[in-house]
Amino acid sequence: MQEETIAAISTPPGEGGIAIIRVSGAEAIAKVDAIFQPRVQGRSLLELPGYQMMLGWVKDAQGEPVDECLAVVMRQPHSYTAEDTVEIHCHGGVLAARQCLQEVLNQDIREALPGEFTQRAFLNGRLDISQAEAVIEVIRARSQKALNLAVKQLSGQNRRYIEKLEDHLLQAAAIIEASIDFAEDVGEPDYEQLEELLNKVADELQMLLDAGRRAEIYRSGIKVVICGKPNVGKSSLLNWLSGRNRAIVTEIPGTTRDIIEEYINIKGIPVRLIDTAGIRQTEDRVETIGVQMAQQAIAEADLAIFLLDVSSGITAEDEDVFHCLDPSRTIILINKDDLQDKQIDAAQIKGRFTGMPVIFGSVQEEQGLSELQDHIEMMVLSGCGAEGAMEILLSERQQRILEQCGEQVLTVRGLLGMLSLDCLAVEIGLLLDSLGEVSGRNLKAEVLDRIFKDFCIGK
Ligand SMILES: Nc1nc2c(ncn2[C@@H]2O[C@H](COP(=O)(O)OP(=O)(O)OP(=O)(O)O)[C@@H](O)[C@H]2O)c(=O)[nH]1
Ligand SMILES: [Mg+2]
Q: Could you tell me if the CB of 230 is within 6 A of ligand 1?
């Protein structure tokens, strides 16, 4: 249990109905009781049962009311930090909350550092490190899917996966130890069995890393650029995908000259969608800058949607745009397929854009657009293993450690039979130590500080 009692405003700054000040530590209840005057005389926070609220005032040193508040008491270990905790619900608004906090701090209570409440929850054994890291993911989740993943992690799912890996390694360690300790009775370890165990570890690590990469996409999102020559329907597509008239659409080629961005959600993936100026040779100075910006946006995007106009055929301008694109990250949408005058047909496309998904569609008639969304999802998630196999959110830290473990397991497996048993035991021990860093069993103080530094104050 930590010595000091700490406090902070746990709600975001700005105006709101209420603000919550969280106070945690051995002296939390007594110290808040000293400045809290219950509405009903004779009552006290010291006697208030856990999880009940009490109405009253926070008072300053002169006994003047600062704000009318509700206070709730949570006694250890039944609180977020597993310490005695009081939450003061005062009126929202910067000043009221700030002043109430000041009165609390005047009681010789220290202001909490970013993430310190969660750090205490971890240090007091209420959360493992994956769960503590999940808290920040829950706060930052930008799509339903990212939130679901974070909540799963918060429920301790990562720990269970890691424990499974540790089980295999412990089994391997036991086999090796038996051969070392009882060399005469046991003899050489069963190398086949060891190899099998290491294979399991390697496979499961790979699955974890794949799932982590999938989750990373849902967490951080992707950048998708819509590009093509003028007038093919780029801005129309941006408007359709974002569900509002964000960009100007006219029949005049060269309508869009700037970069237009919208944050949207495609199948749970947060997408930064970018509409660009139609790329063409032009004398117009403004448009020229727009074209350069379009090319820059294409270079920086994770994925490009390349639009063509079915009624214009594939022109030299289309070829110019196509040269800026990376085929492995491009989806082709042949737009305006509602028009009778078709100058592009499927046969023509076949040899032309090999390996890239090609969709005939119409933004105006809303055709082919769900197919487009399916392709975006598929391309983004390709290379991240099978969907649904496993769901896990890994922090960058965990991802890095697991990658190292993966390499290490393969090295050790390759050296089976060549390494001395002592060396083998040490290697397995090191792997177990690394996995301990993922679960937090084995964390160094500075790593811990770095993890919690990312949090906001009050969390
Ligand atoms: N028939 C038909 N017309 C479309 C379709 N999509 C867009 N248009 C029309 O094509 C014209 C150009 O659309 P925009 O969305 O402005 O095209 P853009 O690619 O953004 O054009 P620039 O900004 O000039 O590069 C407008 O008149 C749209 O109404 C479609 O699927 N079918
Ligand atoms: Mg446009």
A: yes
